[in-house]
Design a protein that fits this description.
The chain is 22% helix and 38% strand. The chain is of the alpha+beta class. It has one domain (5-133): Hotdog Thioesterase (Thiol Ester Dehydrase, Chain A, Roll).
Length: 140
Amino acid sequence: MHENFFHNVKIYYEDTDSGGVVYYANYLKFLERARTEALFSVGFSNKKIEKDYNSLIIVKSCNIEYKKSAYLEDELSVRSFVKSISKTSFFMNQIISKSDEVIVEAQVHLVFVNKKGKPVKIPEEIYSKFIPFFCDSIKV
């Protein structure tokens, strides 16, 4: 059984357009915040990874599907889990829901790189922390 990371987001005025609808690019920010909180939940941070391992985690690609809109003052939940993992990168699936309704699905390819931007092996300490969150299929 896989585990999931969860992060809640409340929609503020600054997140919306003039019609009170969440601006599409802001969903990427919500996904980033959820990934950052996932990292914190297993005892790491981007600053710690940079300092202790001379590495950065970068987004190589993001495939996102917008299914429905979110609106001012909605409360959203971002569910994240590791879809697959290799020596230098991993795919994280992220699902944004409003109540029990999926409104956004994304698959993000994340790569560990050194400060010159070259891929490096994921440190074993980090790799092992993500194993419980590994899932080979989406279960909504």
